[in-house]
Structures are given as structure tokens and as C-alpha cells.
Amino acid sequence: MYAIVEIAGQQFKVEKDRKLYVHRLKGEEGSSISFDKVLLVDNDGQVKVGAPAVEGASVKAKILSHLKDDKVIVFKKKRRKGYKVKNGHRQFLSQIVIEEIVG
């Protein structure tokens, strides 16, 4: 059984006991969270597609930790103009584990 869920503006394919890294979620480490925007549910070949979400379906997950992603370097340059800009960015993430898919 798997589902396609929208979490923090991004779509993920989730299965039971799968760990995911998603954009930082509000909530403490160890707390449970529920996602109601389930776009598709596949239960052993029986596919339910929502318009836009499946009615009565939800995904329950647990927040394992809050962390930061690897640094991404953004370097801009215009040749022969003396223009160089170097920036770095680290995205805030949350690691979650899927506990249950209802639907």
C-alpha cells in the first residue's frame, strides 16, 4: 500500500515505515503529525484518485528530528565586468517516518 501526499508544498510517495526528509515542519521531535491532503491511494491494485484530494484519507507520521541539509554554493559571475557574487544556503529539514496510511 502506498499513497501520494502533499507535505509542505511538495508531493511525496509514502509507504508504511518509510523515512523521508521534508521541509521543516512545525512540531516537536517525537510528536505525531497527520497529513490530510492525500492525492492518490493504492491498496494492492485498488487505486483511488482524488479531485484534488481523496475524501477520508490521511497519513499519520512521526517527527524524528530537525536538521539542516548540506550547503549549496550559489556563484554568479559576469565575465569581463568584475562582477562576482558567492552565496551559500542550507535548507532546514525535518526527518519523518510514516506510521500509518488510512484510506
Layout of secondary structure:
Layout: E1 2-7, E2 10-15, E3 19-23, E4 32-35, E5 38-43, E6 46-49, E7 58-68, E8 72-78, E9 83-89, E10 92-102
Antiparallel strand pairs: 1-2, 1-5, 3-10, 4-7, 5-6, 7-10, 8-9
Can you give me a brief rundown of this structure?
This protein is mostly beta strands and 103 residues long.
SS summary, helix count: 0
Mean residue pLDDT = 96
Which structural class best describes the helix and strand composition?
mainly beta
> Which strand-content bin applies to the residues?
over 45%
Indicate the radius of gyration in whole angstroms. Answer: 18 Å
Alpha-carbon distance between the termini?
Answer: 10 Å
**Considering DSSP H and I runs of 4 or more, what fraction of the residues is helical?**
under 10%
Q: Spell the H/E element sequence.
A: EEEEEEEEEE
Strand line-up of the largest beta sheet: 2-1-5-6
What oligomeric assembly is this protein in? single chain
Overall 3D shape: elongated
Q: Care to count the β-strands? A: 10
Stretches where pLDDT is under 50 for at least 5 consecutive residues are: none
Largest sheet: 4 strands, antiparallel
